[in-house]
What we know:
Layout: E1 16-24, E2 29-33, E3 38-41, E4 51-58, E5 66-75
Amino acid sequence: MWNWDYEEEGTNIRDGVRGTVTGGCSKGIFLALEDGQEAFAHFGGLNPGTTVLCTVLKKATEKWKVLVSIDSIENVAIA
């Protein structure tokens, strides 16, 4: 039986989090997650300031940022 009566610090794989687009490059976009971490997503065409819902695919390492996938766009920032 599972016990869900705990609060865990940080994000885990398959967690849903909100993020705000901070910039981009030719490979994708960079995000600031609601818990303060920086993330990367292979996604394009979003302006900085856009708010998105995303899922954590891979946790951060010393070399790489958190890898996320964009699930939906909440609020589009106008350039």
